[in-house]
Amino acid sequence: MRKELISLRINGRTHELAIEPSAVLLDVLRQQLQFTGSKRGCDDSSCGACTVLIDGVAMMSCTLLAASCEGQDITTIEGVSEHGSLAAIQKAYGDWGGAQCGYCTPGFIMTVKSLLAENPDPTEEDIRNALSSNLCRCTGYNQMYEAIRSAIAAERKGASVAE
Amino acid sequence: MVDAAEKTTGTGKYTDDLSLPGMLIGKILHSPYPHARIKSIDTSRAEKLDGVITVVVGHDAPKTYGILPVGHDEYPLALDKVRYVGDNVACVVATNEATAEKALELIDVDYEVLPAYFDPEESMKAGTDLIHDHKTHNLEKDYHHAFGDPDKGFAEADEIAEARFIANEVTHAAMEPHSTLASFEIDPHTGKPGRLTVWSSTQVPYYLQHKLSLVLDMPMQQIRVIKPLVGGGFGGKSEVIPLEIIAAVAARKAQAPVKITYTREEVFWAHRGRPRTIVDLKTGVTKDGRITAVKARVVQDGGAYCSYGVVTILYSGALLGALYDIPNIQYDGYRVLTNKPACGAMRGHGTVNVRFAFESQLDELAARIGMDPAEIRQRNLLQPPCITVNGLRVQSYGLPECIEKTVERSGWKDRKGKLPKGRGLGIACSHYVSGAANSIIRSDMPHSTVNIKIDRDGGVVVYTGASEIGQGSDTMTAQITAETLGCSLSRVRVIAADTDLTPIDIGSYSSRVTFMAGNATLRAAQEVKKLIAAAAAKKMVCEADDLIFRNDTVERKNGHKVSEVHVVTAAPGSLPRAESRGQAEQSSAATVSGHVEGQILRGSLQQKRKEEGPKDRMSFEEAVVAAIDFHGALTGTGSYAPPPEARGGKHKGAGVGPSPAYSYSAQVAEVSVDEETGEVTVHKVWAAHDCGRALNPVSVEGQIIGSVWMGMGQALTEEMVWKDGMLMNPGLLEYRSPSAVESPSIDPIIVESIDPEGPFGAKECSEGSLAATIPAISNAIYDAVGVRLHESPFTPERVLAAIRAKKNAKAMNLTEGVDPTAPQRFREHGGSLWFKGKGPERHPLDPSRKELPAGGAD
Predict the structure, then answer these.
(1) Confidence of residue B815 (pLDDT cuts 50, 70, 90)
(2) Structural domains in chain A?
(3) Which of A91, A103, A123 has the highest number of chain B CBs within 10 A, making it the mutation to test binding with B?
(4) Rg (alpha carbons) of chain B, rounded to whole number
(5) Is the whole-model pTM more than 0.95?
């Protein structure tokens, strides 16, 4: 298939790329841009490890044609840390055991960001429902809830991570 | 956790994240038949496709291997026969994935289909068309043990229960699919391909190095295995998986780096999970609750290759001992070959399915004698230190406290029997080894060795072979080092699992890492501490024993006020340490970068000029510099091998089961059962786990929660469903790995029995809890609706069939006549699904091709 030129805006920067029209966003991110933070965990869009934000909304990048993302703001896990420091949710996941093997973690963090942007004070049930789009095999999810609560509290306090 | 930032920022590299210049992609052609002879393979059409570099077949690596010395029965690519749907036949190497996939369809394989075996009890009777010619009756291995006097024990019993339990097949389904990148270098002296470097998602880099050397016929020192971040293993990566060797063979033939990453479907076919198991269990108790005898006949559906099979079937019998005091045990175990993907080791190994049977049966006996199920367990505790009837040494034994705590936290005494209709509580216990006392490849070599280097920059570098797979191995290594040397955690750098750099560690399986690699780390740190202490003592004019290493300083005991504080950086969630941090002395302790007294790169002689005389304290850096000046290099090495007393008895198969220490778990599960639909909801599990000492409480709790959760998955929803050897649900959602909305709240309770031989008293915390969850749930279901389930998972179909049977209602044709309270045999389609007409064509003479109704003779 002959490649075509597209322009993608990722984590605030524009990249011009030559891609096959059938290329999915996940493969373009991982293979052409070396943004390997988004992961491939399944073949059928069932695990969420590839989750990115498209204009702030959590979507699975394995289901998106890269070409269809032109003109949109794509945020990957690589764009989450702030000013060279961990964002509150990243620090909290590390402190509270939200990440064990870490493979599902980037996907979860994007989903959590999307949740908190839409619903800054979610109930436990809201959190469970939002997180149900991502699968984890290590943690049993419990410590993720604690991490999320801690991150919400930290952000509220305006606590800077670079203490 | 020391590697948390890599994981939460996505900067950490897993194997599929890696790439090398000129790298090619490999794709494997799998067998569509469960049992067939390969008459010929023609790869010419595939090789002609533009972008295809080469195609590799069995003859490119005609050497067998296997994880067990007795089980070298696998070729990386099938040579003459394929033995399961999914077996490996050829590998295309191409410039990109899409081209490689296209090329797979252009490989022509001429198969001669053979009769296939799927039911282990049928397979055991086979006389012809054996799966492996040298394994008669398709029996990989069988064991027959009798400890004490089982017949006499049963004669003494007042109540005897006998039942068949079936645990269906589950798999690890780690989030990261297996992946391997292999690359040869050119040797500058010969000009020819020389050293091989392999990056692989593995729990056992040294076994991989060994098997690569066997198959490629290369010396081990010419092979470097590097383990990048691993996205979960749970045993699925604790042996060498075919793609790991295929990638190297492909790289050799293609003369370029080759990366192969499994699709999720391929991960299911690669499997190496927990075998479907039939447990025929008989237990006898006296009317005051003492267990007098246990008889277990276990048949494991092992799949097509040996894998860990011999060990799995031994664990099923061995760990009937070491939990409770059972004086008489009879064990007959059969590991059977079938034409399905091979089963291997999965969290809790062979102990899990037997534990489900035993804890359920004990519950039944408790009901019969009118005794509380928690109490009956308390009546059968071991009195350590002791050696069980099958030769297992038990020292630290936190089970009594585990039972007490979980009973207390769950409100068991007040609430059991008083919950609303359809809601119940169940209790169960389990345990596991903290590493096997006898290694797979028998030798006297240490199971772990760790090197530590401290240099003039004051950095502490720990070289350990131990493999971090998400369980916290690197953090444990850093913590033990920092604790011993009294230095800050940030000063410690862990370099792990690179066979060129790190000394041998046999791998991350059997939950051996904290106990064994941890002990090796502790010894290495103590050795280097001795050197530092000797030098510091000289400078401070005192004895080495007078020194305390704390807070990045070395100080004299009686010099001035000494704080009792632990310096290890603790996470906010870990309770005991958080308070003590606040009490840390105001010290002028040097930080790692800058503000160093005495200018670390200057010699200690130059530093001396600045001093007025012997001091009471010095910074860690000063002590290090002094040590280097006095001794030369500052390195320490530590090794660990299990003591002979822990290695068990001498009977056949005695090598499996013994461990230097066992972890213990007691759990209470609270469930609701919907009597209309059979759906089971787990509301909460209280899980008390004796880990010896929790070196990192947040991490320990995470492991307990994770293993309980995985046990719950096996109990309620996870099941591999087969039809004619074809896996019908090779996807995460179809396999029903629970998501957040299906996962209950789990309350982990840490119990610390302080093991005499564990590092700082620590034992394992990652596997011991899984097994108890399954019977805790089945016992809770009994408490809720009065039905005993003998087949896992307890799907709505099975639960509903049992409820309706109890009510003598007309059996709905949900599970094709299956009685979940008395399952007789495996139903090929898994008991709740019926796929008529799908699956590969069976040979006309295939013995399993009988025109039976789906449920068979149940």
Answers:
(1) low
(2) 4-79 (3.10.20.30), 88-156 (1.10.150.120)
(3) A103
(4) 28
(5) no
